[in-house]
Amino acid sequence: MCGNEGVAAVTGELQQGRTAFHRRAWSEAYARLSTADDPEPEDMQRLAVTAYMLGRDDDCATWWERAHVAFPGRGELVAAARCAGWLAMSLLIRGQVVLGGGWLARCARLLDDVGEDCCERGFLLLPDALRQIDAGSYDEAHDLAASVVAMGRRYADRDLAALGRHVQARALIRLSRFADAMRLLDELMIDVGADDLSPIVAGLVYCSAIEGCQEISDVRRAEEWTAALTRWCAAQPDVVPYRGQCRVHRTQILTLHGAWPDAVAEVERALTDLAGQPAVAVAWYARAELHRLTGAFSQAEEAYRQSSRSGGDPQPGLALLRVMQDQVEAAGASIRRALGEATDTHRRTDLLGAFVEIMLATGDIASAATGARELTALADGIDSPLLGAAAAQATGAVHLAEGHATAALGPLRRAWAAWRDLDMAYEAARVRTLIALACRALGDEDSAQMELDAAIWVFQQLGAGPDQQRAQRLLRPPDAAGRLSPREQQVLRLIASGRTNRAIAAELFLSERTVARHVGNVLAKLGVSSRSAATAYAYEHDLL
């Protein structure tokens, strides 16, 4: 091949690589663009973006740096600064704070040398805005992000405006300005849907928007964003950075809607995609929850452990697992500690429903009532159907434990209707077991049996073994007076006095394991699901 033919061949490869880049065929683009011995700085930028989308982080950093070095040779210092900014962003995303900060400083120095106002200065404000969110200075973060949005609009830079809006929305969520935050995120969906953003920014916006919706328990918006992200990833079969997160979000949605086999398949793929990345902790937690719900307790415990090893928090799932394992004291200690450490609204809403359930299981009705009131207040402020359902369920459960079955039925029925409207069959079935207990306490055994039968059918369809077994035990009408042994009556009196299993064991000179077995028998024979409910039932039926 003669020299001119060789040049023509390379030029043809470059052109095909550029075309592949615009088609977002990332593997093809990288293979063709990297054939040039001396690529143009613009092709180096394309290679950096392509490497990022393929998950080739080291190559991404190399190409950004090469482009940064190449642009000043053409006198384009602003373009060099922009490359330094993108390199800094990619490093910060990977958690390389020192090196990323160094490149940000270089970007700032170059722009100072240029001395002109330009949109690249807006990129320097974004890390500061994110740091303000981490520091809890939400007003400052919002103002910085608003400045970034203004600069993006002034210079017609869609990427900069979108990045500013997503940070602004996250700050608004922390400021409890939920409606304003959702308006910003809704507008962003138009931008990403119109394909107006660069691929790196689009991916960041998708993930941030889903996390923002999850922070305020806006399930419907989270579903829409997750579906859009799924389509976006499907159109780029070889994209790597966002596919794992997308699978985790899909797992969470599928789990909520009771499609548990599909959720298992999705989370297994997410664990593979996210191996070695911090986000794998969320995938392990989602896997643990599916194990817990289906009764695979040892596998659930191992998955929670894996989530913790990866930097995640295994609560409240681990505490709920302990309740299922009849280790209510351990569950109570864990959930109290977790809630005591939680300071932001999102984390507290994530924990409070479990806190109420576990406090009722331990017999601490006063703490459960406090938790239910806080959850109700948060739900009223956020206006989330999911949180509203959780708050109504918690309130009804507390009324039931207090022995006020009539008062319990109103909020429990509202919770059931809300879970049904949200297409969350598992939660709806769990509420029906509480409704059944309320009906039974009011002497309406026929309605109790019907509610339990409906709940059992749902649990069976879902594969929720532990809940199904518990509901089946409750299905048997209690005949407590004649069924409790003398020892069980003794244990019931001590339960009613507020003693823990450990205290009962000490008083009766029994092992805690034996006491736990007696407590389980008492709850089953009374047809109730918690120590507090057993106490209320015992007083109502003169069993003490």
Question: What characteristics describe this protein?
Answer:
30 helices; mainly alpha; Serine Threonine Protein Phosphatase 5, Tetratricopeptide repeat; 544 residues
How would you characterize this protein structure?
- With 544 residues, the chain is mostly helical.
- Among the domains are: 36-252, Tetratricopeptide repeat domain (Serine Threonine Protein Phosphatase 5, Tetratricopeptide repeat); 384-477, Tetratricopeptide repeat domain (Serine Threonine Protein Phosphatase 5, Tetratricopeptide repeat, Alpha Horseshoe); 481-540, Orthogonal Bundle (Arc Repressor Mutant, subunit A), CATH 1.10.10.
- It has helices spanning 3-23, 26-33, 41-53, 57-70, 77-93, 97-114, 120-134, 138-154, 158-174, 178-193, 199-215, 219-234, 243-256, 260-273, 280-294, 297-309, 317-324, 328-341, 345-362, 365-382, 385-401, 405-421, 425-441, 445-462, 465-475, 480-483, 486-496, 501-508, 512-526, 531-540.
- The longest helix has 21 residues, at 3-23.
- The chain is elongated, with a radius of gyration of 28 Å.
Structural class: mainly alpha
Low-confidence segments: none
Strand content: under 5%
How far the N terminus sits from the C terminus, by CA atoms, comes to 100 Å
What is the CATH H-level superfamily of the domain at 36-252?
Answer: Tetratricopeptide repeat domain
Broad CATH class of the domain at 36-252: Mainly Alpha
Which fold name fills CATH's third level, the topology of the domain at 36-252?
A: Serine Threonine Protein Phosphatase 5, Tetratricopeptide repeat
Helix content: over 70%
Based on CA atoms alone, the radius of gyration comes out at 28 Å
Total count of strands: 0
- Overall pLDDT: 89
Task: Indicate the CATH architecture of the domain at 36-252.
Answer: Alpha Horseshoe
Strand count, sense and barrel status of the largest sheet are: none
Shape: elongated
Order of helices and strands: HHHHHHHHHHHHHHHHHHHHHHHHHHHHHH
Q: Helix count, per DSSP?
A: 30
